[in-house]
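User: quick one
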Amino acid sequence: MHKRRRWAGRMKSMRRSTIREILKLTKQPGMISFAGGLPAPELFPLKAFSEAMEKTLQQDGAAALQYDVTEGYGPLKEFLCGWLSKQGVACNPENMMFTSGSQQALDLIGRVFFDPGDRILVENPTYLGAIQAFNAYEVEYLSAPMDEHGMIPDVASRLAKKRRPKIGYFVPTFQNPSGITMTLERRLALLKLAREQHFPIVEDDPYSYLRFRGERVPSLHQLAKGKNVIYVSTFSKLLSPGIRLGFVVAEPDIITSLVLAKQAADLQPNSLIQRAVYHYCEAGHLDLHIPTITEAYRVRANQMMTAIREFFPPGIRCVEPEGGMFIWCTLPAKISAMRLFKEAVKHNVAYVAGTVFHPHGDGRNTLRLNFTNSTAEQIRTGIQRLGDVFREALV
Amino acid sequence: MHKRRRWAGRMKSMRRSTIREILKLTKQPGMISFAGGLPAPELFPLKAFSEAMEKTLQQDGAAALQYDVTEGYGPLKEFLCGWLSKQGVACNPENMMFTSGSQQALDLIGRVFFDPGDRILVENPTYLGAIQAFNAYEVEYLSAPMDEHGMIPDVASRLAKKRRPKIGYFVPTFQNPSGITMTLERRLALLKLAREQHFPIVEDDPYSYLRFRGERVPSLHQLAKGKNVIYVSTFSKLLSPGIRLGFVVAEPDIITSLVLAKQAADLQPNSLIQRAVYHYCEAGHLDLHIPTITEAYRVRANQMMTAIREFFPPGIRCVEPEGGMFIWCTLPAKISAMRLFKEAVKHNVAYVAGTVFHPHGDGRNTLRLNFTNSTAEQIRTGIQRLGDVFREALV
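Assistant: Done. Structure below.
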């Protein structure tokens, strides 16, 4: 921060994304990176999306390049609501809006709900992008610990009753960073708590469509019949993150406020992208493509778990995921994953130290591994290198 | 606003865009609308942009669909800096970032600079999108009156010295809404004031490239050699607004803060759009296309001024523009343009009542006419209808 400038007070609580900084570092040649949260680029449906884009520019023509309404492109809302309703997220077009990735949904939620000092109930660890978005609103985090079944309801309940959160924010399915899915029982307990304590819930769900084993757990949105749950998801993992198209499903009065906030923030979603995604979906590609990604990710997750079992020294616990993009590991309590990160980079392998996902800076012995953006060969070699680093630290 | 919800305090100062609401209303069949600020869709370079998009998806492939850096796509920054430097806006890639339209640039500027209660010096009238963006930060407006030479320096100076603005925000060239261009003398006076009073200037410049008569006036950015001026512009008027690509040129420390804010707001600009616009520009289309739009807008502005002279009753002053998209009219002091708007809509013609562009709600007898989004026939018929409405009100 430049000294002679008079910045806004909120700038003090904002910081650069550690992950985005790591991503730059990991572009070094020879580096195997499990740090990012990038989908596999070789699986992007380039051909189908190119066709959809061509159709858009030919058929929709000038309308695809003109201003359009903030609420979002009607036909895509219609399609997506139909699709989501089949997945258990009941929805009508007036319940839906589009955002510039789900990151903007989180920002807009912050904007319409948070005053400085407001408290937000989150899982500990929680999604880094949410921390970044909400920090701009100078909120305080009530972070409830997790085990392998998700956030622990009793602790969350004690926190909520004592500190009265304005909102609860959760990634209940294949959580980023932990990969953990909240059980049905705990979802019901959380919804009961939210009802009793009168706070709306944000369900951030980019990953549930990427389930490669186990049984689907109903979304919080479904269990609450949409009441007081703001459902946030995105095309980033289903199609492409570069096109920046997220969406929100919520009660109409909340959508109205979020649309108002979006008008001020960036006027409207991208006309061209909305229409291209519509043509892509309407041609049936969404349902064709998801099994392809899911199967590839299943294979990579298995490869990584196999390599972990082979190369990691005893004393390191890793959570085997049922979907999503991440494996979460816990080192012995005395070991700092942040300190070991420098060692790992020397060995040409990278991860994200888990402490950045903990709003209060705990979780020093945890780390996140991404398995979707590496080849079988890279996964095996990278995990072997990491195993060497950990083994050395554990002696 | 739903009563049972606990919204953020800032929601009280946010309101829906009157213009966006009017745009919905003016979609009625038979309506001739001079209300929007829409570029002429029939002039969009559909073919050239389609080719650029095809090239992007073929040549850049997966990279165009993947996550990328918040700072923006390097080659487009290189190109655009070269192009802008030739136009007198000296720039290097580290001075530049991309935003989701210039609306997001205004939002991010608000985010990094404004605390509630901060004051901002603006022209009166000023751009409605800026009022919307800045309202979210609960600022106060110091609005300095304009004449046909732009903002009046003495009044601006008195306001600034007394009330100490945190920032000055101006649209010095072909202003939206007034179409007026600030003279060189007044630009120099404004820059002197900003230096003495230590406030940075935001120069919002979507229109200067659309000059169809008169001599170019150097940008504030150029006159200040980039010092303490945040230059904001967009591809919305040069190429397409639907693709949502704006840009900011500013000193590197300001870019760093804005990038940090953008990470929290929506992570990054659209990878695909940035690359497609790069291929479009790199093939030479930007310089080919601008004269086409400019010439068409010149013709339409002339048609509208001719019709105004023919059909408007005496006592209405309209400012003949040298570029941009708008003609600004002032009715006799006692007449309310807002009240007459309903009458105009009954006659199937629409404009924007000028009061919405005045942060303190004055300018009741002013109105804005857009000439870029209507045919010669529509312009003549629409102005004739308006003439009837005004004549009736003036008797």
